[in-house]
Design brief:
The longest helix is centred in the middle third of the chain and has 34 residues. About 75% of the residues lie in helices and about 0% in strands. It contains 10 helices and 3 strands; from the N terminus they run E-H-H-E-H-H-H-E-H-H-H-H-H. Strands 2-1-3 form a 3-stranded mixed β-sheet. Helix 2 packs antiparallel against helix 3, helix 5 runs antiparallel to helix 7 and helix 9 crosses helix 10. By secondary structure, it is an all-alpha fold. The termini are far apart.
Length: about 300
């Protein structure tokens, strides 16, 4: 079987549907993308600079923000370029690179949210053991395992996909994903389908199950405490719950859309893309910045410090 990496470029045909609104879409995408980039990087800077935030929860939050930067940066610049260009083409190698980073991005968000849920579980349900369980070294090890596992599984999936022989080279979507390339292939292979299913279970279903399990234990313990303790626990968990629900809904919507994309208007393509790659990297840091008092105070202190120096 010949490697499909040397195949002709992939052409995206859907962009012709946005002829009258391309400029507005470019402005909207760039504003939201750059805003998300600035907000995420500012949050990472705050966590790195403020010593009071050098704790597992905030360390994980910084990595959640960085994963959002990776996800949006893997898709937004190329979509913006396609909206401005007369021809919308990428090489298959570029397409596969996009698949790799978008897969890692989705898996990273779910896995980091699972680690954050575990952190909240230990903090609320086992407070006396928190510092012995959630040590900095252990948190770094868990993150390293997440990155290694996701990078390896995504690399294997991209490699298997790259070995497919393609019969078509036109795509009616905004960007590349594994399903897009599989639909272009001349053949359907069970190996890729099974491997993709196993990856989805490991990086999406399992983390979601761990988040739900953690919160079942958390609420079981919290409901037995005082009203003030319940208020503090809910205040701590609300940003994480909102983030988890938001990203899970976006992922579910994207999954459904991939299966019925030929039956919906092209505008839904834009909504799906923005709902998964653009809105979360902007929304999640804002949610934590507003809801978590220590982050809000640290941000205000940094901003005021910069203003005074200027």
């Amino acid at each position: 079987m010949n490697s499909s990496v040397s195949a002709p470029p992939v052409t995206f045909t859907i962009y012709g549907s946005f002829a009258l609104s391309k400029f507005a879409l470019v402005v909207c995408i760039l504003v939201l993308y750059l805003s998300g980039l600035c907000v995420s990087l500012f949050l990472v800077l705050v966590v790195c600079v403020e010593s009071r935030l050098h704790r597992p929860m905030y360390f994980l939050l910084a990595h959640l923000a960085l994963s959002g930067v990776m996800g949006s940066s893997s898709v937004c610049p190329i979509i913006t370029r396609h909206l401005l260009a007369s021809r919308q083409q990428v090489s298959l190698r570029q397409c596969l690179t996009q698949v790799f980073f978008s897969n890692v991005y989705g898996g990273c968000v779910f896995c980091i949210l699972a680690l954050m849920a575990f952190d909240r579980y230990v903090s609320i349900c086992k407070p006396l053991l928190y510092h012995s369980i959630m040590t900095p070294a252990r948190v770094k090890l868990m993150l390293a395992a997440v990155y290694f596992t996701l990078s390896s599984s995504s690399a294997v999936q991209v490699y298997l996909t790259s070995r497919l022989s393609l019969c078509r080279h036109t795509v009616d979507k905004l960007f590349c994903d594994s399903l897009v390339i599989s639909e272009l292939s001349c053949e359907k292979t069970a190996v890729i389908s099974v491997f993709g299913l196993v990856c989805a279970v490991c990086v999406i279903v399992l983390p979601c199950f761990l988040v739900i399990l953690s919160y079942v234990h958390i609420f079981t313990v919290v409901l037995k405490t005082s009203k003030e303790s319940r208020r503090k626990a809910l205040q701590t968990c609300t940003p994480h719950l909102v983030t988890f629900i938001n990203f899970s809904a976006a992922s579910f919507f994207g999954f459904i859309y991939n299966r019925v994309s030929h039956q919906v208007p092209p505008a839904v393509n834009i909504l799906t893309f923005m709902n998964f790659f653009v809105i979360p990297p902007l929304l999640h840091p804002i949610i934590y910045g507003i809801k978590m008092r220590e982050i809000r105070q640290s941000m205000n202190r940094m901003i005021k410090g910069k203003t005074i120096r200027l």
